[in-house]
Amino acid sequence: EGEAMRQFTEIQGLSEIKRLPRLGKIRLGIRVKKKAKDDRCKHGAEDTCMYCTYPKETSYFVVPDEVAKARDKDKNNKIIYGKQPTELDVMLPVNDLAIVFPQALEYYGMGAGLKCTGNGKTALRMNEDTRIMERRECPCEYLDQGKCTKRGHLAVILFNVSMGGIYQIDTSSFNSIVDINSSLAYIEGMIGRFAKVALKLKRNPIETHHDGKRQTHYTMRIELEGDVAFVNKLRKEKKNILSGPRIQLQAPVQDVSSYDGETAVEDGNGEPTVAELAAEPEAPPVDPQKH
Fold first, then answer.
1. 167: Cβ–Cβ under 8 A, 6 or more apart, which residues?
2. Is the N end or the C end of the chain the one with fewer CB atoms within 10 Å?
């Protein structure tokens, strides 16, 4: 009788779902203290908030402690990345760009999370009265006003740190989004996939000009390092790699600010750049990589 009661061991629509956890976030900048006091701050002198700090781009990845402290056991337990790595060894968990690098135009409300998301043709915006997402045309006036911005959410496995989940990296950089899309398309064209391939994710310095001023920004770029023999080997492994179970990922965490309280606050010169001012609380929460 007990065995008969155990004939069902799976639930349709549930048991077949396989999902990787999110282990943390990697960021592209920090928050820096302003010189001037902001009357909107309600905290003590030693504390900080969104009003008394501004986001500042870094030339390196801002990584969690477990990434900074990861060691190579085959090389005398040497630290692999440290606190300010400019490149990371990554894999993409599934061969679906919409899952590993979803992209959209996004508008956030301060403290309220994502309020509108669209693809440049159609959008879903929250009705403030009903709290229901409603369909509308995209783009709208928010894009010209700077309240809405392009965003990409990259999900990567740091295989030198942990194979047990993914790390999320957000970007609003035009060049980063284009370069990552281009790299993955090129890699897939060569070997038939980009999933489960050892890749390098790098911060790439580029020079930009805005209002007659020259600035250096640091975009993201993905590279496949290997010769033709290595590429041919990967191509032969395609069938076995892609025949595995289909893995889902958690939806990207939608931060009010790209450089929120999880990152360090440092003392700066107190004078944010034009791009950094655009990412203050009155404006959308974007990376200061407006290029």
1. 22, 23, 24, 25, 26, 64, 67, 155, 156, 157, 158
2. N
d(CA 15, CA 85): 39
Q: What is the pLDDT along the chain (291 residues), one digit of tens a residue?
A: 556 667 888 898 888 888 889 999 999 998 888 877 777 887 777 777 777 788 889 999 999 999 999 999 888 889 999 999 999 999 999 999 999 999 999 998 766 678 999 999 999 999 988 989 999 999 999 998 888 999 999 999 999 999 999 999 999 899 999 999 999 999 999 999 999 999 999 999 998 877 788 888 999 999 999 899 999 999 888 877 777 667 788 778 876 554 443 344 444 444 445 444 444 433 333 343 444
Q: Domain extents for the chain?
A: 18-277
**Long-range contact list for 240-245, CB < 8 A, 24+ apart?**
241/193, 241/195, 241/196, 242/95, 242/192, 242/193, 242/195, 245/18
Which residues, 6 or more positions from 228, have their beta carbon under 8 angstroms from its beta carbon?
none
Residue appearing with tokens 């693809």: 119
pTM over the 0.85 mark: no
d(CA 221, CA 229): 23
The C-alpha atoms of residue 100 and residue 137 are separated, in whole angstroms, by: 26
